[in-house]
Specification:
Strand content of chain A: under 5%
Oligomer: heterodimer
Largest sheet of chain A: none
Shape of chain B: flat
Number of domains of chain B: 2
Largest interface: A-B, 108 and 104 residues
Strand content of chain B: under 5%
Shape of chain A: globular
Distance between the termini of chain A: 41 Å
Radius of gyration of chain A: 20 Å
Distance between the termini of chain B: 59 Å
Mean pLDDT of chain B: 86
Number of helices of chain B: 9
Helix content of chain A: over 70%
Structural class of chain A: mainly alpha
Low-confidence stretches of chain B: none
Number of strands of chain B: 0
Largest sheet of chain B: none
Low-confidence stretches of chain A: none
Order of helices and strands of chain A: HHHHHHHHHH
Structural class of chain B: mainly alpha
């Protein structure tokens, strides 16, 4: 039963997961919290681990959730496979008619507008994922708020700073690197809380 | 050929940190510059397709390349059962290559992390990491908002759509509406609005005549 639910959930996630990893997070979060497969805190931990390990974030999350929910490797296989399946079927269908599609559909106003609307909906999904994670479990004190603000500012800094000096620009770019920021936040956490 | 596909995507899956978009330059170098499986234009078409279809961009691109390479190989051979299923075998090897590295690494971490996350030191580190993760999810929104209305400039219909995004966020956040319904509603909304727009334009054209 658990396996069936896991399959249905991740098939849904794969089917409606438009707009890449961050948007898919929102879908995973909803399913995982609805069925109580893990707590909010565990979910944030997984996202952190997904960010610092190679590979697409969606795959990382599916594999981790599958294992945690079932305590078995097969749970991972099932969740990951179920998430890939809808995209696989759709992409294969697309490949079959690729020549027709690329000439006719690419300029279709309905198709183009749907994609444009979805890009906006995805913004809402990602914003909701972030808002849902602002809980007492993740923001435990003022240090949390400071860390949040620091990482936020450093991430968007390359868009705000347009320096003519290459050295400054390079430093800003390096400092906005997600993996580095997570490692630094981890070091800060260790210093503050232990 | 199957092994080459598997190996190429294994490299792509292993050496890219941080998800789909970070993979694209590496995929381009491997399949366009090095293996010459597809050319530059086909690569751009592929990205457009991989982004439009649901699912992960990296996996979708593996499916596309696998199928193209497989189909080309198939047409150069004489037939038989193996040749008929060859494109699907090619897709499987590319997808396996793309997925396997993250799968193995994450599975190992999932098995180990559960035993150590109660240690005070690990918990202290994670306490620092958690707010950072929330910031990393929220921060790309700025850049994505500016690019969301492409290819149109933002002022052409950007604001009503942004309010739709805001409403979606509130519905998911406060009313716990499933994102699935938001996606479905968005598709319906897009089709209806486009139909209305087209309808109005046709009437306008008629009136002009």
């Amino acid at each position: 039963m658990l396996y069936l639910q896991l399959f249905i959930s991740f098939f849904k996630i794969g089917l409606f997961g438009f707009g890449g990893g961050l948007a898919i997070l929102s879908l995973i979060q909803h399913e995982v919290l609805t069925y109580g497969w893990m707590t909010e805190k565990e979910f944030v931990d997984i996202v952190a681990i997904s960010q610092v390990t190679p590979g697409p974030i969606g795959i990382n999350c599916a594999t981790y959730v599958g294992y945690t929910a079932t305590q078995s490797v097969w749970g991972s296989v099932l969740a990951t496979g179920a998430m890939i399946l809808p995209g696989l079927l759709i992409m294969l269908a697309v490949c079959k008619v690729y020549q027709v599609l690329s000439t006719r559909f690419a300029d279709n106003v309905y198709f183009q507008n749907t994609l444009r609307y979805l890009r906006f909906a995805v913004l809402g999904l990602i914003a909701a994922a972030a808002l849902l994670l602002i809980t007492p479990a993740t923001f435990i004190d003022h240090y949390s708020t400071i860390l949040f603000a620091a990482v936020f500012v450093l991430t968007i800094l390359p868009q705000l700073v347009r320096s003519k000096q290459p050295a400054v620009q390079r430093t800003v770019n390096i400092l906005s690197y997600p993996i580095l920021l997570i490692v630094l936040a981890g070091v800060a956490g260790y210093i503050i809380y232990s | 050929m199957l092994l080459q596909l598997f190996w190429t995507y294994l490299k792509v899956g292993t050496f890219t940190l941080g998800g789909g978009y970070a993979m694209l330059p590496l995929i381009q170098r491997e399949v366009v510059d090095y293996r010459k499986w597809i050319d530059e234009t086909e690569f751009l078409n592929m990205i457009a397709l991989a982004q439009s279809a649901p699912g992960l961009i990296a996996v979708n691109s593996a499916i596309f390349i696998g199928y193209q390479v497989g189909a080309r190989h198939q047409s150069s051979t004489r037939g038989g059962v193996l040749s008929r299923i060859y494109p699907y075998l090619a897709v499987c090897s590319a997808v396996m290559g793309a997925v396997l590295p993250s799968f193995v690494i994450i599975l190992a971490i999932a098995m180990v992390f559960a035993n150590y996350n109660h240690l005070p030191a690990v918990e202290a580190v994670m306490k620092g990491v958690r707010p950072a993760v929330v910031a990393l999810i929220a921060a790309p929104l700025l850049r994505m908002t500016l690019k969301a209305n492409n290819p149109k400039p933002f002022r052409e219909g950007g604001l009503p759509l942004l309010s739709w995004a805001l409403l979606s966020a509130l519905l998911i956040w406060l009313a716990h509406v499933s994102p699935v319904y938001i996606i479905l509603a968005t598709i319906v909304l897009a089709l209806v609005c486009t139909w209305l727009g087209e309808h109005r334009r046709m009437q306008h054209n008629k009136a002009a005549k």
